[in-house]
Amino acid sequence: MTPTEALAICEATVRRLDENRYYATLFASAENRPLLFALYGFNDELARAGEMARDPVAAEIRLEWWREALDGARAGHPPAHPVAIAIAEVIARDREQARELEALIDARAIDSTPAPFATLAAMASYARATSARLMQMAARLQTAESEPSAIFDGAGIAYGLVGMLRNLPFHAARGRVFLPSDLLAAESIVAADVFSGKHSDRLKNVVRQVEDCALAHFRRAKQNRIRRAVLPAILPAALVPAYLASLAGRANDRTDILRLRKQLILLRAAFFRRL
Question: Is the pTM here over 0.85, yes or no?
């Protein structure tokens, strides 16, 4: 498989699995789009490793495979997997990306654990290590100039938290509680309450606290005008308010927003260069 073929497969995969980042990437230059799709394709593989493996050991085996694949890509000999071949092109552009890709793998190690977050701060730290890091990596692929880290931090944490809230039913169905343990304990909520799918006021209160945290980080990022060169990396965060509105405090409904509305939100944010 040639790198061109591998990059095309990544684009198709991102379009199918990560629609928000796909549309945001269309605002990048034609030269940079394939590498962004490779990066997001890699991220999708890591996310699926935890989502598809109910057994933490199986998930870790899959992540270890990607560690070895990354080593091969770094050495210029990636395994015969389209994402591995494509990510080798990313590393060829910027060798420092390999270290960040490895950090993404490390951060995903908790995805298959039953209750990964002891506190809301831990949940936000996970969003920083995954979503915010991915935004910063994507920005670096587009420009060598640095951008204030507060933009990526605020936008990435907000988008990451909202993503976890939207996927609560998915994780609950697999026996995982992606909500802070201390907030659940304060409301006398046990795992069985989350798994039951009941929309109790106590559970809604926990979700609302996470939503408030996401909104606070979004507002922090919104204060900054974003340079056009890094805009495609940060654009997905423009959807945070719409997602929060669609969630409306519901703990167990996986929600999305209409595709046309999503595209209009991204277009407006790109035009004004503000979230």
Answer: yes
